Amino acid sequence: xxxxxxxDLIRVLADxxxxxxxxxxxxxxxxxxxxxxxxxxRQTNLSHHMKVLREAGVVETEPCGRCTYDxxxxxxxxxxxxxxxDLAESARSAAENKRACP
Length: 102
Known about the structure:
By secondary structure, this protein is of the alpha+beta class. It has helices spanning about 5-15, 15-25, 30-40, 45-55, 75-95, and strands spanning about 30, 60-65, 65-70.
């Protein structure tokens, strides 16, 4: 069963730019200038979206000298994927669970 945390996470990832950022971070750890270059978003806009992703627990920061890198938290994505896998499994057997019409 989906929790309110899962629903909030789905809303966070529903934004196209945030989903793009997560997709990029799933491939490699990047800093803000890299993300600006890859997404074409303005730095201020990107910073706002990164804040939302950090607050949702999807992304965490990693200081490295003068830079701060952002990296994805795979456990959060895996947990959400698990909920969708459970939903898909339930849907497979739904055809067998037909409720009679009144």
